[in-house]
Automatic annotation (TrEMBL):
Pfam families: MFS_1 (PF07690). It is a multi-pass membrane protein. It comes from Komarekiella delphini-convector SJRDD-AB1. It is found in: Cell membrane. This is MFS transporter.
């Protein structure tokens, strides 16, 4: 029931560590991911230097977050269109250079809130080109039998960057402000992260599957978007995997909101909600490591179904515990379940998608996930206020079980049709 090809020869992470180009890509994306998280912390930190009406702090935070997330909804698929037509290294390195230079330019512009919104919007827009190019680059550098281990490594470091980035973002920016100056120290550190990422990926030699002709280089965004959509409709296995990934990200988006109130429930400060996300990240790293080393032995297990049931169990039990240590262990358990969904499904999409469709499919995936994330972020808070934390968590648990069983049955039907 794990619908990806078993590894013919898979030495886990050992083979990947000998692949110089893959390691450069991995290190580069890790640094870039850290840059993204620290940049978000930078935006929040810079707000104190920008004038605002009394009592409008929360509104400014919300507006800033909207400016940072809207590009993902608007341009998620557009990035994939460019990935299929231009060299992937050019897109990734160029994205890092543009974001780095723009971050360095922030101190030289007027300290007006609208200016900060423009920087957040533009830098986030450029990020939408990096993500699909990164996903499309992995199959170019890794053999098919090693894709599971590669995605496990990428997933674990992505969560590691999320945990570490938010954890060290404020201390790093404070230290930069003290050592390098209040006017440009923070921006210098974040800009340096992006530029360092670009430098790490510059030596990579990608074996592109085709050259770009003048006719291919012409961009037809709407036509390409429809072509990608038609392809997904014909390939229900990929579409089903994408729906499971989208559901997983929706759960994490809702938990991001809920953990703020959970922190208060367990006697923590609201800004310490990151402890729960960090514990989930550790669980994802642990689960990804298991899949990276022993994934081929678990090939016939219904891993995504097991993952959804683990997440549902955690959400249900969460409402009945008042012990902080046990709650953190539960978050780690939830992270393991998430890795059982995310790693196999991302590997499936990469294995089953032909190279000429990589950009369109990964761009559409990025777009769908970002659109789906907006709903939990918007409704979880009001639902919690209206119904209470326990009701919302139990409701999420039920939904996750239903989606997991539905996805499992749907995948079985698709595989039977293929056979």
């Amino acid at each position: 029931m794990f619908p990806t090809e078993p590894a013919a020869v898979n030495n886990g992470f050992g083979t990947l560590l000998k692949n110089r180009s893959f390691m450069l890509l991995w290190i580069g994306q890790l640094i870039s991911q850290l840059g993204d998280k620290v940049f978000f912390v930078l935006l929040v930190a810079l707000l104190e230097n920008y004038p605002h009406p009394p009592g409008a702090e929360n509104s400014m935070y919300s507006t800033l977050m909207v400016a940072f997330t809207v590009p993902a909804i608007l341009f998620g698929s557009a990035g994939g269109v460019f990935v299929d037509r231009f060299p992937k290294k050019l897109i990734m390195v160029g994205s890092d250079v543009v974001r780095g230079l723009m971050t360095l330019a922030i101190p030289f512009f007027p300290k007006e809130f609208i200016v900060l919104l423009i920087f957040a919007f533009v830098i986030s827009s450029v990020t939408q080109f990096f993500a699909p190019a990164e996903q499309a680059a992995i199959p170019l550098l890794v053999r098919k039998e090693n894709l599971l281990a590669a995605n496990a490594l990428f997933s674990s470091t992505m969560m590691g960057a999320l945990v570490i980035g938010f954890a060290i973002g404020e201390p790093i920016l404070s230290a930069a402000k003290a050592l390098l100056g209040e006017n440009y120290g923070q921006e210098l550190v974040v800009g340096a992260l992006y530029l360092l990422s670009a430098g790490m990926m510059q030596p990579i030699n990608f074996k592109e599957h085709k050259s770009i002709s003048e006719t291919q280089a012409v961009i037809h965004p709407w036509a390409d978007f429809k072509e990608g959509l038609r392809y997904l409709k014909k390939n229900r296995l990929i579409l089903n995997a994408m729906l499971q990934l989208t559901t997983l990200y929706c759960v994490f988006a809702a938990l991001t909101v809920l953990t703020i109130q959970l922190a208060a429930e367990f006697g923590l400060k609201e800004k310490q909600f990151g402890f729960f996300l960090a514990a989930a990240g550790v669980g994802m790293v642990f689960g990804a490591a298991i899949l990276g080393h022993w994934g081929e032995k678990l090939h016939h297990k219904p891993l995504p179904l097991i993952g959804f049931l683990m997440i549902a169990l955690v959400l249900g039990v969460f409402t009945f515990t008042h012990n902080l240590l046990f709650a953190l262990v539960l978050c780690g358990f939830l992270g393991v379940g998430a890795s059982l969904i995310g790693v196999p499904m991302q590997t499936l999409i990469q294995q089953q998608t032909p190279p000429m469709m990589h950009g369109k499919v990964f761009g559409f995936q990025n777009h769908a996930v970002n659109i789906a994330l907006s709903a939990p972020l918007a409704i979880t808070g009001p639902l919690t206020d209206a119904l209470g934390l326990r009701v919302v968590l139990i409701g999420m648990s039920v939904v996750v079980v239903v989606v997991g069983i539905w996805a499992w049955n749907n995948t079985r039907r698709v595989l039977q049709d293929v056979i």
